[in-house]
Write a structure and sequence with these properties.
By secondary structure, the protein is an all-alpha fold. The protein is built from eight helices and no strands.
Length: 222
């Protein structure tokens, strides 16, 4: 059946980056369009990762739990779907504000408020998903079906972004779980990605966070 440990790893990354993002935007001086462009690109990447992550759950996970888990899943899966909608509304608000802020570095407080709403909705959702959904996935979803979630995310990620996204996830990831995630990749990918991906994230984190080792705010996630 499904090995759900990779979901905790993905959640740790989302917690960390979305927790740190509002303060990064607050710290941008009005009119500093250079810094705003750097952070807007980072925020856009995170929003795309989040959208693809939830799209995969909508397509691959909720229907199977509705079908197989019966009363165990009925209420909680409906709640998950409603939370996805709320997150998507907040996500759309952030995405709509990013281009103007990128161009002008004005209106940062409005963007920060939208990011805080997105962060709060996302955190509530992930906590409930870990407590209620992942135990159901272990019971009712096969390993092959579970892998389709990750495959959906990778298939819809631009190839140039894959090493960075993997590096973001691997930063707080368990080596055993990382090896499982890469197990079915071609041999060159299995050998090279554990070297390239952390380096890509370290360089990116230094540019975004001012350090190659930003706070591991998701470290308490399993």
């Amino acid at each position: 059946m499904a090995d759900i440990r990779d979901m905790y790893m993905a959640h740790a990354m989302l917690r960390r980056e979305f927790d740190l993002l509002p303060q990064l935007v607050r710290d941008v001086a009005p009119g500093d369009t250079g810094r705003a462009a750097v952070l807007a690109e980072h925020a856009d990447l995170l929003c795309n990762v989040l959208h693809r992550h939830h799209e995969g759950e909508d397509l691959e996970l909720w229907p199977r739990l509705h079908e197989r888990a019966g009363a165990e899943a009925e209420a909680i899966v409906s709640t998950m779907e409603a939370q996805h909608h709320a997150i998507e509304v907040a996500h759309a608000e952030v995405v709509a504000l990013l281009p103007g802020w990128r161009r002008t570095a004005q209106g940062g407080s409005e963007l920060v408020d939208a990011l805080e709403r997105l962060r709060a909705a996302l955190l509530e959702h992930m906590v409930m998903e870990e407590e209620r959904i992942l135990p159901l996935a272990e019971k009712y979803v096969t390993a092959a079906e579970w892998k389709k979630l990750g495959e959906h995310g990778m298939a819809s990620t631009p190839k140039k972004d894959i090493p960075l996204v993997l590096g973001m996830v691997m930063y707080e990831g368990d080596r055993e779980v990382i090896n499982e995630v890469l197990a079915e990749a071609p041999l060159p990918v299995r050998l090279i990605m554990p070297l390239i991906a952390p380096r890509r994230y370290a360089a990116h984190a230094k540019r975004i966070h001012g350090t190659a080792t930003p706070p591991r705010v998701g470290a308490n996630a399993r």
